[in-house]
Amino acid sequence: MQRGRTLFWAITGSIVAGAAVVIALILVNSGTPLKAASSPTPSISASASPPASESAPVVIPKTSGASSFSYLSDLAPSGKLGELVSPGPVKIDGSIYPKSILFYCNVGDPTAFPAYKLGHNARRFQATIGLGAKFPPQFEAGIILVGDGHTLRTFTVSALRPETVDVNVTGVHTLQLECFGSGQSSTGGWAISVAWGNARVVERL
User: Fold this and answer.
1) 6: left (phi over 0), alpha (psi -120 to 50) or beta
2) Which of 11, 148, 156, 186 could form a cystine bridge with 191, CB 3.0-4.6 A?
3) How far is CA 100 from CA 34, 72, 116, 136, 156, in A?
4) pTM for the full model?
């Protein structure tokens, strides 16, 4: 009887020891692939991040202590033009202008131009103006700034040549933005859009 008990405990001890070895091997083997799988994650994340040099600079106008800005992107143009003017950031000549507007030019078809009511304290109209998409280099747009029916400034922009303007609008009640594209008619698929980067009215405080 004593011999049977001794044999039973010997067999049981062997089984327990074997199970411990098997469990240890499973834990070791299962831990290795998890560690190997997790190690590439930082390198993948780092390689997906674009270098700082590829980020486009963001242009933010600066105000003086005696003036403030009214961005056209925050104003509603007069008439039924709300659906024709797109507010938001635009990219001109490699830089981002966050407070901008964009609309299509007259290229042979009747086009309504947006007009904005100015306050009595308006002093300057400022913007960087260029084509709103990657058009061929030969495409141009003629820009006319009209104040109360009178021409304030005329100039031409192209994909390679944007224009930064600073126009006196003192005493002007309504500012109208006009553009005429050198492309085909909009029904022919070559309508030209013009981006008005950070278009704003400088107002005296």
Assistant:
1) alpha
2) 186
3) 49, 7, 14, 22, 19
4) 0.70
Helix residue spans in the chain (DSSP H): 2-38, 41-48
List the structure tokens of 150: 């009178």
Q: Which two tokens stand for residue 122?
A: 């308006």
Amino acid (one-letter) located at 147: G
CA–CA distance from 111 to each of 63, 139, 147, 157, 185 (Å)?
A: 34, 18, 18, 19, 11
Burial, 105: exposed, middle or buried (Cβ in 10 Å; 0-12, 13-18, 19+)? buried
What is the Cα 81 distance to its own chain's centre?
23
Report which of 116, 112, 85, 120 is spatially closest to residue 196, judged by C-alpha positions: 85
Contact 135, 159 (CB under 8 A): yes
List strands edge to edge, sheet with 174-181: 115-117, 174-181, 140-147, 150-158
Q: To which H or E segment does residue 179 belong?
A: strand 174-181
